[in-house]
Amino acid sequence: MHKVYTIFSELLKLCPRYQFEKAVQRYQGDRYVKTFTTWQQYITVLYSQIKQKDSLRDIETGLQAQSPRWYHLGLTGIHKSTLSDANTKRDYRIFEDTFYNLLARCKDLTPKHRFRFRNPLYTIDATTIDLCLSVFPWAKFRKTKGAIKMHCLYDHSGALPSFLTITDGKKHDVRVVKEHAFPLVPDSIVSIDKAYIDYKWLYSLDKKGIWFVTRAKSNIDSVVTGQHPISGKGVLSDESISLQGPLTKTYYPKELRLIRYYDEERKKTLTFLTNNFKLAASTIAQIYKSRWQIELFFKWIKQNLKIKSFLGTSKNAVLTQVWIAMCYYLLLTYIKYQTKYGYSLLQLSRVIREMLFERKNLIDILTLKPERLLAVRSEPLQGALF
User: Fold this and answer.
1) pTM confidence score
2) Total of domains in the chain
3) What region does 354 belong to: left with phi over 0, alpha with psi -120 to 50, or beta?
4) Which of 187, 193, 199, 225 is geometrically suited to a Cys-Cys bond with 252, CB 3.0 to 4.6 A?
């Protein structure tokens, strides 16, 4: 008899299982484990992300209600105490590695960014996730407040988080980019805000052949060394400058480009600083404006993933939940691009949430209009998506 799997099982098939088990071995995730394996932990926490569960008991009850449909998932049992112990003790880096393995799959499918130039386009920024200091004492941020900070390299080709690192809330953004090897390739363009202005670091980008675009500080000490023809709507001036500060001219000895631009929408004059002398001044302004996409990305994951309330209080439990949440974001992205899904990522997440344990093929529910989903009945369908 033909086996009909659920939407959840098709979702799990997208996880690179071989690389997952390699990560389990690397970090000894299943050492001394008899029943609740790392894979079962991944299934359970992923389920909590999809179904928006708020507590361990809620997860346990929800999964036990679906126990007749466990056979194809690899899940053999669920107890909240066992899940709590796994989240606390099992190395979160297993799921961090899983995130990057999924990312490699997504990159093969993503569309290009909207600009005409062919350079890879990135944005670097960070977002703070607030925590209660009395509950999460390891996450020190301010005197009476706790937080962790997610630092992201956002790829505008496909709206993907190409690199993530998570630190305590006190760590300064510039310090993080200087300590971690963000995977920027030569000839790529990266937009950053003023918080990342460190001339030593900016000069290290220039020496690697990486273009940067940022906002200039109001107290920048510089001298004009040349003028460029003004072209493009909103461009007020386009100059070559050299830094004149006693230290800054040592940290960044080369010329920079300073562009003054009037933003019609905000009714405000903005000053941009870049090492790119080739692109039009108006294009430089649009590159910086595209930074807003990373803010929308941060807003989306905070509103639609469970990364603001946590199932455990230890650092390992929090990071486990965050990395599995980001794995789910990549799964949604992969499905959207692979199937050319015509609706939003939010709509896709809602469809999967409602149909998670239905015995349907994923491709069949994605081709239905949202209003038709209510009429879908659990009946066997032939074939599979992947």
Assistant:
1) 0.90
2) 2
3) alpha
4) 199
Determine the structural domain holding residue 341 and report its residue range: 7-100+313-375
pLDDT in tens, 166-195: 998 888 899 999 998 899 999 999 999 998
pLDDT of residue 3: 56
In a domain, 86, yes or no: yes
Give bridge partners of residue 223 from the DSSP assignment. Answer: 242
Task: Give the integer Cα–Cα distance in Å for 112 and 102.
Answer: 19
Domain end marker among 290, 325, 345:
290
pLDDT confidence tier of residue 34, bands split at 50, 70 and 90: confident
How many whole angstroms separate alpha carbon 78 and alpha carbon 127?
33
Which residues, other chains included, contact 111 with Cβ-Cβ below 8 Å and sequence gap of 6+? 157, 158, 337
CB 356 within 8 A of CB 6: yes
Q: Which of 163, 187, 185, 188 is nearest to 176 (CA)?
A: 163
User: In the structure encoding, which two tokens stand for residue 189, read together?
Assistant: 């363009």
Distance CA 352, CA 355 (A): 5
Pair (257, 333) in one structural domain: no
